[in-house]
Design goal:
Blueprint lengths: L1 E6 L7 H15 L3 E6 L13 H4 L10 H10 L2 E7 L7 H8 L12 E7 L9 H18 L4 E8 L13 H10 L2
Helix pairs in contact: 1-6
Bound molecules: flavin mononucleotide.
Flavin mononucleotide (FMN) binds next to helix 1.
């Protein structure tokens, strides 16, 4: 299977990136083809909300780096959204990108979605917000189009603030095993 990680932290070698790489290491060991997109390296604008894409077969009026990422999403079997928590939800970078996935809502069929996230707090109950955001994002695809997309799991790190702190977390093992057992 093709596994695509979409990474939405502004930190180059930050905790989310390290955790996502561990997930991908597991997936690779299991024989899957893996790719990782660094959103911070991409140039793209905010969704205009014009709805043109829903009337023209899924083409965004903005010609920027998002077009290629949407093609990669269509080609993937498994899509992993990897974002640290900022105010208990996605980073602004990730949210800006997710808004731009509107054109593929009718066409993104039979994808399995995973969430990789983490934050500075230690209480995992406080991660409920981003988990809900994740499930609702995937649910939008299902609710409107019944296209067989499913939220299949999540890996959550807690109590990590400094870059690299995630290496000491049990979430690393969980990420590897989740990737290995896709
Ligand atoms: C603007 C901002 C908002 C944050 N909000 C939260 C938060 O709501 N909850 C939390 O647990 N950690 C929060 N953090 C801490 C980050 O999630 C934490 O430092 C994380 O390790 C960063 O991941 P990264 O290295 O992948 O960028 C915030 C950090 C920043 C810079």
């Amino acid at each position: 299977m093709k596994v695509l990680v979409i990474h939405g932290s502004m930190r180059k070698n930050g905790n989310t990136s390290i955790l996502a790489d561990e997930f991908l290491r597991g997936a690779k060991d299991a024989g899957h083809a893996v790719e990782k997109i660094e959103l911070r390296e991409k140039k793209f604008g905010d969704c205009f909300g014009c709805q043109a894409c829903l009337k023209n077969g899924g083409n965004c009026v903005q010609k920027d780096d998002v077009a290629q990422i949407l093609e990669m999403m269509k080609a993937a079997d498994i899509i992993v959204l990897a974002s640290p928590m900022y105010y208990f939800t996605w980073t602004g970078l990730m949210k800006r990108f997710l808004d731009r996935t509107y054109p593929v809502m009718p066409v993104l069929k039979n994808k399995k979605f995973y969430l990789i996230t983490l934050g500075g707090v230690s209480d995992k109950k406080l991660m409920a917000h981003i988990l809900t955001d994740f499930y609702l994002y995937v649910e939008c695809f299902e609710e409107f189009n019944q296209v067989g997309c499913k939220a299949c799991g999540s890996v959550i790190g807690s109590g990590v603030i400094k870059p690299g702190a995630i290496k000491e977390s049990p979430a690393m093992q969980e990420a590897y095993e989740t990737g290995k057992n896709l």
